[in-house]
Design a protein that fits this description.
By secondary structure, the chain is mainly alpha-helical. It has 20 helices and nine strands. The protein folds into two domains: 194 residues, Fumarase C, Chain B, domain 1 (Orthogonal Bundle); 282 residues, Up-down Bundle (Fumarase C, Chain A, domain 2), CATH 1.20.200.
């Protein structure tokens, strides 16, 4: 059970909830803060103070004062009007993350909602009753309005939810969760939809995927380097101590460790006329390591955002103040997603170059396109083309979303982050890069087979053997897409070979 307090959520806890279904509950101290914030809103309403989002319209309609008798209706209509999303629904993992993150930001006590509202979100999460949230419709300021409105809608008894893959009316889903539709009170509609939790959830999912990706890249690069009969001297720790970027040193240590004891490496220590390997091999630590370091920076920003209050206006109970600001603006997450896209694309780009070297007999000394009887067989010719296509597609997706801004709401919201666009286009880059690495693994394993009877290191041979249980050596041409898809699936089971890696 994870205690939601608005300020201590970790990425590991996010993973446990999103993937393993760990339950969440509202922390006692958070409940006290939330109740204090709610009292401040009620006092503001009773005084009749004009307060944005409490007794006024929204956006360019902020100057329209709303009658007290319509304050609850105002909040409901806000959610209904902002349910303007289109496109395919977000994955269940993303929606679970949104529910958790929205509960966490409200738990800080600066949004003015009742504890009941937070507990209802957590009940949906714990019960697996997930709002159907369209993926398109957010410009990232004021936060993810449309996605969060769709997230909020089922608690009003409206919209649709998904339970264990089955889509049903929200009312039916609420019954399964033991809930009844809520009647919103002043500020509670706005507090439900103003924030960055859609883009933050999606970025968190990509960061978790990239944590594995950088280690997998080192593992496969080591096999490819040995299959290319490359030298391990470029991974000597002394070199990297002189340029001590943490990620570079970690990647170099990983590749060095994996290659130790290789009979293939020992076979060409003497008499090899080659002095240096190409950059895609020799500079793998510098490239992989730079991605590692940037990923760490993104993760730091992500965890801050996960524990931030991104509503507007914000409530300060101790002073009794209600303050309007711009914490909903998604620029931190938009920029983080855009730079991570560049970094992950580079992992795919350098992997594709190693694939080319493996298939290029003029460089590798291996049979052309890693196949015997070349000409009759084309071997890995088209596998490299597929890797090139994926790497090129990644470059297209790398155009930064955050440099764009289209004013909305009658130019009141005149600069927006496009953070949702940034995280949405990051996802296919991550998937494409996994697929490129799967192709590199398939090619590297074939290269190892073509060097028999020489054997690689114990670590690389263990990986090779496990891979061959899933994908047979290519003796003659067959539908290679089947092999590439099997290799991609194999990456889900590759963690056991990375226990000793940094």
């Amino acid at each position: 059970m994870i205690s939601i307090d608005g300020q201590s959520l970790t990425l590991a806890q996010f993973r446990d909830v999103v993937f393993d279904g760990t339950a969440c509950t509202l922390a006692v101290d958070a409940r006290n803060r939330v109740e204090a914030g709610r009292r401040t809103v009620e006092e503001t309403v009773s005084r009749g103070d004009a307060t944005y989002g409490v007794n006024t319209g929204f956006g360019d309609l902020a100057n329209v004062r709303i009658e007290d008798s319509n304050l609850a209706l105002l909040q409901e209509r806000l959610i209904l009007s902002h349910c303007a999303g289109v496109g395919e629904p977000l994955a269940d993992t993303a929606v679970r993350g949104m529910l958790m993150l929205r509960a966490n930001t409200l738990a800080r006590g600066h949004s003015g909602v009742r504890p009941l509202l937070i507990e209802s979100l957590l009940t949906l999460l714990n019960s697996g009753v997930l709002p159907l949230v369209p993926s398109r419709g957010s410009v990232g300021a004021s936060g993810d309005l449309a996605p969060l409105a769709h997230l909020a809608l089922p608690l009003l008894g409206k919209g649709e939810v998904r339970v264990a893959g089955e889509v049903m009316p929200a009312g039916q889903g609420l019954e399964r969760a033991g809930l009844t539709p809520l009647t919103l009170e002043p500020k509670e509609g706005l507090a439900r939809i103003n924030g960055t939790q859609a883009m933050t959830s999606l970025l968190a999912l990509s960061v978790l995927a990239c944590r594995r990706l950088v280690r997998i890249a080192d593992l496969i690069a080591a096999m490819a380097t040995d299959a290319l009969r490359g030298t391990d001297s470029a991974f000597d720790a002394r070199l990297h101590a002189l340029r001590p970027h943490p990620g570079q040193r970690a990647s170099a240590a990983n590749i060095w460790h994996l290659m130790q004891g290789s009979g293939i490496r020992d076979s060409h220590r003497q008499g090899d006329v080659r002095v240096q390997d190409p950059y895609s091999v020799r500079c793998a630590p510098q490239v992989h390591g730079a991605v590692r370091d940037l990923l760490g920076d993104v993760e730091t920003k992500l965890v801050i955002e996960m524990n931030s209050v991104t509503d507007n206006p914000l409530i300060f109970p101790e002073q009794g103040d209600v303050v309007s600001g711009g914490n909903f603006h998604g620029e931190p997450m938009a920029l983080a997603a855009d730079v991570l896209a560049l970094a992950v694309s580079e992992l795919g780009a350098i992997s594709e170059r190693r694939i080319e070297k493996l298939t290029n007999s003029a460089f590798s000394g291996l049979p052309p396109f890693l196949t015997r009887d070349a000409g009759l067989n084309s071997g890995f010719m088209m596998a490299q083309v597929t890797a090139a296509a994926l790497a090129s597609e990644n470059k297209t997706f790398c155009h930064p979303a955050s440099v764009d801004s289209i004013p909305t709401s009658a130019d009141k919201e005149d600069h927006v982050s496009m953070g949702m666009g940034a995280v949405l286009k990051l996802q296919p880059i991550v998937v494409n890069t996994y697929r490129i690495l799967a192709i590199e693994l398939t090619a590297a394993a074939q290269g190892i087979d073509l060097l028999r009877p020489l054997r690689s290191s114990e670590s690389i041979e263990a990986l090779h053997q496990a891979f061959r249980e899933r994908v047979a050596v290519l003796q003659e041409d067959r539908e290679i897409a089947t092999d590439l898809n099997a290799a991609y699936a194999f990456l889900d089971d590759i963690d056991r070979f990375m226990d000793a890696l940094q």
